[in-house]
Amino acid sequence: MKKGVNMGETGAFCEVYGNTIRNQVLEYLLENKDLDVAVGDMAKELRISKPKAYEIISDFEKKKYVKKSRIVGKTRLYLLNKESKRIKLFLRDFMECLRLVSEEYAENEKNTAVKKNGKKQVSRTFLNGSEAQGTMSGEAH
Amino acid sequence: MNAALKAVLATMLNKHYIGGKHIPEDKIVKSKTQWLQKHELDEFETEYKQAVNSELFIRLKKRTGKGSDWHISLNPRKLKEIYEMIK
Q1: Which chain A residue is nearest to residue B13, measuring alpha carbons?
Q2: What are the beta bridge partners of residue B23?
Q3: What is the pLDDT of residue A111?
Q4: Interface size, chain A vs chain B, as Cβ–Cβ contacts under 8 Å
Q5: Minimal C-alpha gap between A126 and chain B (Å)
Q6: Residue B71, strand partner residues
Q7: pLDDT of A42-92, one tens digit each?
Q8: Tens digit of pLDDT for each residue in B45-62?
Q9: Model confidence, pTM
Q10: Are B70 and B60 in contact (CB under 8 A)?
Q11: I need a labelling partner for B79 at 20 to 30 A (CA). Which of A103, B7, B9, B27 fits?
Q12: Which positions ≥6 away from A14 have C-beta within 8 Å?
């Protein structure tokens, strides 16, 4: 098994709603909401077996989450069905998860900036204090 | 905005590829542009170059076992802008 970059890592959506194979497939479809998706490629990226991927996609097709798009050569492509009410709900939730991620990173950056500024102020008072007492080396007593 | 570029941004934001955490450029770009038609691919390339120039992506050359590859991650200072583009 190759180590390195793992495209099958859990995203923010699966962190919130559970890291099941179905949720991973749904998350993949939500990420590629306007793009045609091939089941084999999806299985490879998510590191699941092709039979399982086809089973989930056929189930999603019955529930009208996904519709058949076009055929390129021998490959059948699928597209997220944005007209479905449930998919609209999922899309809203997915966008909320992305908003949370961007806000968390913005907060972390603010906190690290505050910590750096705090350290500089402490070192200034130390120098001022020693200067004020006249105990610095080099001064004759 | 091109659908494939939106998909790249959404995937990277969802999987936390921000700042120091990066992904090979080839891997993500090829996965999103594999089934595009030619005119859509040309659109994607122009918009991707604009996005790199406007510093939405941090693009670095990283040493790998094969030599070196280009890796990308999202710019943490532009996350709000990226989120607005994905909406």
Answers
A1: A98
A2: B72
A3: 75
A4: 74
A5: 33
A6: B24, B60
A7: 999 999 999 999 999 999 999 999 999 999 999 999 999 999 999 999 999
A8: 999 999 999 999 999 988
A9: 0.81
A10: yes
A11: B27
A12: A20, A23, A24, A27
In terms of Cα–Cα distance, which of B77, B70, B33 is closest to B55? B77
Asked if B18 and B72 count as a contact pair (C-beta separation under 8 A), the reply is no
Q: What is the ipTM of this complex?
A: 0.91
* Cβ–Cβ contact A36 with B under 8 A: yes
Position A26, amino acid = L
Q: CA torsion sign, A76 to B10 to B16 to B34?
A: positive
d(CA B80, CA A101): 10
Residue A128 pLDDT greater than 70, yes or no: no
Predicted local confidence at residue B49, as pLDDT: 93
Quick one: which H or E segment has residue A70? strand A66-72
Interface of A with B in 58-97 (CB under 8 A): 72, 77, 94-95, 97
Residue among A17, A35, A52, A124 at smallest CA distance from B35: A35
Residue B31 structure tokens: 């996965």
Query: What per-residue confidence (pLDDT) applies to B66?
Result: 78
| Binary contact (B76, A105; C-beta < 8 A) | yes
Tell me, what amino acid is at B61? K
> What residues contact B47, with CB distance under 8 A and at least 6 apart?
B1, B2, B5
